[in-house]
Amino acid sequence: MRTGPAGVGIVVRAQDGTPLVTLGQFIGRATNNVAEYRALITAMEQAKTLGAKKITIRGDSELIIKPMRGRSAQ
């Protein structure tokens, strides 16, 4: 896999859909897979900082979503 300039983008919303955190961040050189996981981790860290006890993750990356649903990412 090739690396290149990479970034993450996340939105953390309240239960009613109100955006609480929007973040775009350059993470250096990384593969797309590393960037996908870094975005997930960043979103969870932000939610924890806000005091979240339960979260719903939404995304379009099979690499992230399938394993979270208990399925193989392959």
Which percent range describes the beta-strand content?
Answer: 25-35%
Strands ordered across the widest β-sheet: 1-2
Number of helices: 2
The residue-averaged pLDDT reads: 94
Rg of Cα set: 13 Å
Oligomer: single chain
Structure write-up:
34% of the residues lie in helices and 30% in strands. It contains two helices and two strands; from the N terminus they run ββαα. The protein has a two-stranded antiparallel ribbon with strand order 1-2. The two termini are 15 Å apart. The model has no long low-confidence stretch (mean pLDDT 94).
Give the arrangement of secondary structure elements.
Blueprint: E1 4-13, E2 19-30, H1 32-49, H2 62-68
Antiparallel strand pairs: 1-2
Summed up:
34% of the residues lie in helices and 30% in strands. The protein contains two helices and two strands; from the N terminus they run ββαα.
Primary descriptors:
single chain; 2 helices; two-stranded antiparallel ribbon; 74 residues; alpha+beta; 2 strands
